[in-house]
Amino acid sequence: MEALRVWMASSNLLGFAASRATKAAPAARPLRLHVRSCSRAAATTKPPSPPPQDRRRRSASSSSSTSDRESIRAIRLKKVEELRGKGYEPYAYKWDRTHTTKELQDGYTHLENGEVCADVVVSIAGRIVARRAFGKLVFMTVRDDTGTIQLYCEKDSLTEEQFEQLKAFIDIGDIIGANGSIKKTEKGELSVYVKNFEILTKSLLPLPDKYHGLTDVDKRYRQRYVDMIANPEVADVFRTRAKVVSEIRKTMESFGFIEVETPVLQGTAGGAEARPFITHHNSLQRDLYLRIATELHLKRMLVGGLEKVYEIGRIFRNEGISTRHNPEFTTIEMYEAYSDYESMMNLAEEIVTRCAMATHGKLRVHYQGTEISLERPWRRETMHSLVKEATGIDFNSFGEDVESAKNAARALLGIKTESSENISLQACSSVGHVLNEVFETVVESSLVQPTFVLDYPVEISPLAKPHRRYAGLTERFELFICGREIGNAFSELTDPIDQVQVCLVFLMHVNCLC
Predict the structure, then answer these.
(1) Which reaction does it catalyse (predicted)?
(2) What letters, b where the CB count within 10 A reaches 16 and e where it falls short, cover 82-117?
(3) pLDDT of 239-259, one tens digit each?
């Protein structure tokens, strides 16, 4: 069987990662998709801790900011009470709108400056993100899910009570509904000429400063909803993600795959090497694990007779956390019988290119200033060839001489005896492990354009089928784009005797480490 995991980072790229087969079943391939959503801005590195003096200043500034927010909250709570005292409910049940802001912007772009469509009545709703008052005239910018539009509020067009409410009770951050006609101002700004409005939700806290936005990296991660208000482009990441997941489903269905759901709570954490989260089932009076992969249950579906299955599901791994790694993430893992890693490469290309066309409409995309060409076919090279190309060292020449391979790697990488890199290199138990160490250090970051790295050493791919032509290698590939591992797949090891032997060796290795 063959395994493949696919994930999309918060960039506009889609990628792949790996799974392994352990049950006797027809030759099959699995696919996992990890979809991680975060804006490029939000994925910046957290700045270093400030010196003590700056920390004191920040603390004082934070205290002042908290005090200001509480004062604003108290003022707005008083406005809520006053509105209710006047018979208005500041938290409405419903508002009937006729258009989104984008529909209005698209539908009335032809109006001339100063032109009014008095015979048209529209109704919109959204959050106020800007407000300017000039005597008998108030301008407000309203944002909804699709964009923004200006509200043109003239005293002569509203009742005196409504105009006073507009000036005294409405704040930036409030959600309002408004109806009226359409006009384009003398300066060319398309606007809703407001005849009536209603406060739908009274905001109790201010929005981030409009000039500086929400810049605190930690807050952007922890309060994504505020991030989306302050930085509207962040929402595009979620829209792109939704399109990618939808396109993957369409692609899988077009190839005849069946989507299934498997248990999240499992008696054994299997399918990957990862530390699981442990929870307790009260009725069963036993501990259970949150799954670290969907692999094992999907393989059982193959054993049961289904030939093409996949699952989009949540995965939980109790390990490190960074802008690249989240303890919980979404994967799609799929299995197809009677297939190997060659056909999985074709499937990987198919999924990525279809998703690129669905989200961008083209196969050339830009990522952090680099143009990535997703046009097929993608480059395919063996790990040995790529390392030799980058370093001039042919690791095949070392045979099984691990020490010679280590010495060559130390000289190449400039590793000192007391360094942590040397400790990692010294732990390599075979030439294959040393080769992989050099590949990850030297070659990986240089693989910018889509590249399939083929035929990994058997020592680092124990559950992949041995290569049918080259001894000591396996039928495995990893896909790299922009210097990142995007996918990992292989022809699955289906010989049950070999599987048991591999598992025993692995358990012995774990016991030695313990």
Answers:
(1) tRNA(Lys) + L-lysine + ATP = L-lysyl-tRNA(Lys) + AMP + diphosphate
(2) ebeeeebebebeeeeeebbbebbeeebeeeeeeeee
(3) 999 999 999 999 999 999 999
